[in-house]
Amino acid sequence: MGDFYSTGREMTHPYTSGIFFGQLSYEQLRQMTPELTEQEKQALSAKHFYEPMASLTPEHEAAIAAPPLSPDECFLPGDIGAILLDKRSTAAENGYGVLPNGVGYAAIKIEQEGITDEMIKKYREEFAHDGPRTLFYKIWFPGMHLLHYENGVAENFGWGMLNLEMEMENFTFRHLGICKEDIPVRDPDCICLLGIYGRGWQIAYPEKPPVYTCMVQHTRQTSAGRELRVRYWSGIAFGPDGSLEFHVNPDHGQTCEQMRLMMEHCMREYSNELKLIKEFWNMATEATIQ
Predict the structure, then answer these.
(1) Helix, strand or coil for residue 147?
(2) pLDDT tens per residue across span 179-205
(3) In sequence order, which residues have a C-beta less than 8 Å from that of residue 60 and are 6 or more positions away?
(4) Residue 131: exposed, middle, or buried by beta-carbon count in 10 A (0-12, 13-18, 19+)?
(5) Which of 122-125's residues contact partners 24+ apart within 8 Å by CB, and which partners?
(6) Half-sphere exposure of residue 271, counting CA atoms within 13 Å on the CB side?
C-alpha cells in the first residue's frame, strides 16, 4: 500500500465481490448487467435499489450546469495538497475542466451533515450483506455500478461501462506536494487522506486505448458531521518516485465532457451513499425500539 493518512476514525469501504481485476473476461463482463439478477432480487435489501436516489444540492446542480473551469482554476496533484489542507482556500470546490497540457480535472465536495462513526461502522459491516456480494455496489448507484473488484471497479461514469483496475501502491504524499507530517499540523480536523490511480478499458470496446485516472479523497471533521472532498484527474498516473506519468487524450473536448460526467457521477454516488447510511441507521434504530 502507498501513503495513507488516517486518525483511526470509522470510514466507509465497499462490500467487495471477492473477485480480482482480470479474473473476468470482457465477454463475461458484457454478459453481466447493472440491473439486479434474480438471485439479488431475493435479498431484503434489494428494495433500496428501486428507491429514488438522493437529491443533489443546489451547489452540485449549479456546477453540473456551469461551463468548465478556466485552465488556471484547475490544478495538478502537486498543488492539491496545500489546497485541501487549507480551510481558507478559495479554489473551486465543485467544478470540472482541462489544464493547458490536456489533463482533465474535477473537484467535488460532499457535505456529510449528521453522520457519525457509529452510523458508518454499521453501514460498512452490515448493509446489503444479505445477498450476493455484488448487491452492495449495485445499490450504491443503481444502473451505473456493475461490480466492485478487490482492486478495481466496473462502472459507468457516463460514457459506457469501464473496466477499471485501481492501485494505491505508487501513491505518495509527494504527489500532492506535502509530507504526511504536514497533515495534522496544517489541518487538525483531517480524518483521512488517500490517493488511488488506475487504468480503465471500455467493456464494449476493450481494444481502444485505456483511460488513465487518479483520485484523491480528503475527509474532514466539522461541527455538523464531516466533509468529503474528491479530486479527479484524467490523463495521468502516479509514478513510484513521486512523479506523474502523462497519458493525455489529444481530444481535449472529449476529456472536458468526461470530467463533467465523472464529477456528476461522484456527486450522485456519494450523496446517495450518505442517504443510504442514514436510512440504514434509522431503520436499525427503529427496529431496536420496537
Answers:
(1) strand
(2) 999 999 999 999 999 999 999 999 999
(3) 94, 264, 267, 271
(4) buried
(5) 122/280, 122/281, 122/284, 123/12, 123/276, 123/277, 123/280, 123/281, 124/10, 124/11, 124/12, 124/13, 124/15
(6) 18
Cα gap 249→236, rounded to integer Å: 10
Percent of the chain with pLDDT over 90: 96
Q: Which of 234, 272, 241 is nearest to 76 (CA)?
A: 234
Q: Which residue has the cell 444479505?
A: 130
Find out whether 153 and 19 touch, Cβ atoms under 8 Å.
no
Long-range Cβ pairs for the range 178-182 (8 Å, 24+)? 178/81, 178/82, 178/85, 180/3, 180/5, 182/81, 182/85
> Which residues have a Cβ under 8 Å from the Cβ of 20 and sit 6 or more positions away?
149, 150, 151, 152
Average pLDDT of every residue of the chain: 96
State pTM to two decimals.
Answer: 0.96
Measured CA to CA, the distance from residue 177 to residue 167 in angstroms comes to: 20
* Residue 203 near residue 30 (C-beta atoms within 8 A): yes
SS3 call for 69: coil
Task: Give the containing element (helix H, strand E) for 104.
Answer: strand 104-113
Radius of gyration of the chain (CA): 19
